[in-house]
């Protein structure tokens, strides 16, 4: 049982080792990275299917019994997140083969990339709150490494802001864990469920809950703690931007979902009101920033922030439908953000510019790519029958049922502004002519175009299928939501397993 | 002992925040060092301090005899120290590289990634 949980975690780290040793041969290193990512995806799918049958799968590391040992546990939400993480890993690993040159590979790009995937998978699978901190740090230091590979002045500038703010958030997380341990005496999240509910020091626990809100909100780029994201995400290589955009903030959202359903009860607490207003302001701030920016990756970075707002809103409303909507939105967002950032990379390669006001002429030169980008943009904006529509529908319906009318209005308004933002990208980036040259066509990129366009097309096909047959995925999201809101199965499985 | 530790943590974190609000990147890093030490002391104090009772199991016994110091927070603090020093080492080298590349340690002057409005070319 525990091997099922360990494999998605071990494979990325095991892959990182040969990737590092062969870093002088970027082609080989990239192929090892792709092979490792595919193996991790297979392991993740096996875990997912086992979780679909059994409900919750738990294993104790080192044979130490719960709640003293470290538990690795996969419920439906974790299993879904691990699958989409490894899916994103495969997509970006293939994309990286077309983008990462010798110099970047020699600095260890592929090895650090695999370590990042391992850290993210670990964060999704752990059942111990201090272990969650450790996986956050693994993920963080790997992201530091990826951010500065290349060493351009812009990257160093962005990295300083990113490093500074993220280190503050990890210190807050650590302090919260210390205080929580002091009050409850346990670190295992399943055990914390009972310990926090039965504790007499509810006032202190409210304060500790706010520590965690701040720590995870900063990781998830929630208003007003999101400024590190537009400062840094548009500076590194495109493959790096793509994996950051798809995965890093989602780990913060996952942690909010996990800690505030399992450890702390959000219903009626101070944290719920805080998260609700933070989510609404995040959505508005994100989409406003997207409309105000002109660099293609900055626009997409602000759109990440707007999406994070919707995800946190689903958690804050705290009804089964709202959390299911959040989880479905999470799946859709990881895949579409990866596709959009990779498309931004292709756009920049084809036009030689990254500023939307200077690039252009893409519809004239590559209508196929333009069409693919348009579908991705519409998926994000929420056109039926694409996945964004189903996600927004669930969230709006949940908001109306919970009488959070302002939230519902803001979701719809932000959806409208997102459409405006996508149309701006389309108009300025695709339809108007190039500032001082011609945009290249896809076939002029040579053989690179297959590895660059392949992952984008693959992710879009998945998203279109998901949009046309949403019932299965909405069912998964609802199962995950039920498991989150009624954690008895989780707690019993973790505390009952012996090896 | 814990009230004393709590006051110490308060002083450390206050000093750290004062330093982290500074423009100079190096002062920010000093603040980061202090605040990570403050966080480690929080975990240490959460384990409740005991005088002179190390968590050791005597020869031939299965468990420690009587009440001993809590070993778990010590393990947490060790992990946190190691993680903290790794991250801090990276941050120091990044600050050095920022000084080399950007020519300044003043974070308000570092505006390459997000240029000020007047500096942007239209």
Give your account of this protein's structure.
- A two-stranded antiparallel sheet of chain A has the order 1-2.
- Chain A has 21 helices and 2 strands.
- In chain A, helix 3 packs antiparallel against helix 11, helix 6 runs antiparallel to helix 7 and helix 13 runs antiparallel to helix 18.
- Helix content of chain A is 78%, strand content 2%.
- Helices cover 60% and strands 0% of the residues of chain B.
- Chain B has 3 helices and no strands.
- Chain B is elongated, with a radius of gyration of 21 Å.
- The model of chain B has no long low-confidence stretch (mean pLDDT 89).
- The chains are: A mainly alpha (499), B mainly alpha (122).
- Chains A and B meet through helix 6, helix 7 and helix 10 of A and helix 2 and helix 3 of B.
Write a brief structural summary.
The complex is a heterodimer of chains A (499) and B (122). Chain A is mainly alpha-helical and 499 residues long.
**Uncertain segments of chain A:** none
Compute the CA-based radius of gyration of chain B.
21 Å
* Beta-strand residue fraction of chain A: under 5%
Strand content of chain B: under 5%
Task: Spell out the helices and strands of chain A N to C.
Answer: HHEEHHHHHHHHHHHHHHHHHHH
Please count the beta strands of chain A (DSSP E, at least 2 residues each): 2
Features:
heterodimer, A: 499 residues, two-stranded antiparallel ribbon, 2 strands, B: 122 residues, mainly alpha, 3 helices
List the helices and strands and how they pair.
The complex is a heterodimer of chains A (499) and B (122).
Chain A (H helix, E strand, L loop, with lengths): L1 H20 L4 H29 L2 E4 L10 E4 L1 H24 L2 H5 L2 H17 L3 H20 L4 H32 L4 H10 L3 H19 L7 H5 L5 H26 L6 H23 L3 H22 L2 H32 L10 H4 L1 H15 L5 H15 L3 H27 L16 H21 L1 H16 L2 H9 L3
Antiparallel strand pairs in A: 1-2
Helix pairs in contact in A: 1-2, 1-5, 2-3, 2-5, 3-5, 3-11, 3-14, 3-19, 5-6, 5-11, 6-7, 6-11, 7-9, 8-21, 9-11, 11-13, 11-14, 12-13, 12-18, 13-14, 13-17, 13-18, 14-16, 14-17, 14-19, 14-20, 16-18, 16-19, 17-18, 17-19
Chain B lengths: L1 H19 L4 H22 L24 H32 L20
Helix pairs in contact in B: 1-2, 2-3
């Amino acid at each position: 049982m525990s091997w099922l949980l360990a494999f998605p975690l071990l494979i990325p780290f095991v892959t990182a080792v040969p990737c590092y040793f062969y870093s002088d041969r970027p082609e080989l290193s990239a192929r090892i990275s792709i092979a490792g990512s595919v193996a991790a995806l297979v392991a993740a799918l096996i875990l997912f299917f086992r979780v679909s049958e059994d409900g919750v799968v738990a294993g104790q590391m080192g044979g130490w019994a719960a709640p003293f040992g470290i538990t690795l546990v996969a419920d439906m939400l974790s299993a879904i997140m691990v699958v989409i993480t490894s899916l994103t890993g495969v997509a970006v690993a293939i994309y990286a083969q077309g983008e990462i040159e010798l110099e970047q590979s020699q600095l260890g790009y592929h090895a650090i990339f695999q370590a990042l995937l391992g850290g993210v998978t670990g964060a999704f699978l752990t059942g111990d709150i201090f272990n969650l901190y450790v996986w956050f740090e693994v993920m963080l230091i790997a992201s530091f490494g990826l951010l500065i590979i290349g060493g351009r002045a812009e990257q160093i500038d962005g990295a300083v802001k990113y490093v500074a703010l993220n280190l503050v958030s990890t210190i807050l997380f650590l302090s919260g864990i210390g205080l929580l341990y002091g009050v409850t005496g346990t670190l295992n999240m399943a055990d914390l469920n009972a310990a926090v509910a039965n504790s007499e020091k509810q006032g202190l626990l409210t304060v500790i809950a706010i520590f965690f809100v701040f720590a995870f909100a900063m990781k998830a780029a929630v208003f007003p703690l999101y400024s590190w994201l537009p400062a840094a995400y548009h500076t590194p290589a495109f493959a790096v931007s793509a994996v950051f955009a798809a995965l890093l903030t989602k780990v913060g959202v996952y942690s909010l979902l996990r800690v505030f359903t399992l450890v702390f009860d959000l219903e009626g607490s101070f944290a719920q009101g805080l998260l609700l207003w933070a989510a609404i302001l995040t959505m508005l701030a994100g989409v406003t920033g997207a409309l105000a920016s002109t660099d293609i990756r900055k626009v997409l970075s602000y759109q990440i922030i707007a999406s994070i707002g919707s995800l946190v809103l689903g958690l804050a409303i705290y009804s089964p439908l709202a959390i299911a909507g959040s989880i479905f939105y999470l799946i859709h967002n990881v895949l579409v953000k990866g596709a959009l950032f990779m498309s931004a990379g292709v756009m920049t390669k084809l036009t030689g510019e990254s500023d939307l006001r200077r690039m252009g002429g893409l519809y004239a030169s590559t209508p196929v790519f333009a069409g693919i980008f348009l579908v991705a943009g519409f998926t994000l904006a929420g056109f039926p029958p694409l996945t964004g529509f189903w996600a927004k529908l669930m969230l709006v319906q949940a908001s109306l049922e919970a009488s959070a009318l302002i939230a519902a209005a803001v979701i719809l308004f932000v959806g409208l502004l997102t459409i405006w933002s996508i149309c701006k990208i389309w108009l300025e980036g695709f339809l108007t002519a190039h500032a001082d040259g011609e945009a290249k066509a896809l076939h002029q990129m040579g053989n690179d175009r297959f590895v660059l366009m392949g992952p984008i097309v693959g992710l879009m096909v998945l998203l279109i299928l998901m949009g046309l047959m949403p019932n299965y995925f909405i069912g998964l999201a609802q199962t995950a939501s039920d498991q989150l809101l009624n954690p008895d199965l989780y707690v019993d499985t973790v505390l009952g397993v012996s090896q | 002992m814990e009230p004393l530790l709590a006051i110490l943590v308060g002083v450390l974190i206050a000093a750290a925040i004062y330093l982290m609000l500074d423009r100079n990147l190096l002062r920010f890093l000093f603040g980061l060092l202090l605040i990570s030490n403050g966080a480690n002391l929080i975990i240490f104090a959460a384990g409740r301090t005991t005088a002179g009772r190390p968590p050791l199991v005597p020869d031939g016994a299965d468990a420690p005899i009587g009440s001993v110091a809590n070993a778990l927070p010590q393990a947490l603090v060790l992990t946190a120290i190691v993680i903290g020093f790794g991250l801090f080492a990276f941050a120091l080298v990044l600050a050095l590289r920022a000084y080399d590349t950007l020519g300044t340690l003043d974070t308000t002057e570092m505006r390459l990634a997000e240029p000020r409005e007047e500096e942007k070319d239209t």
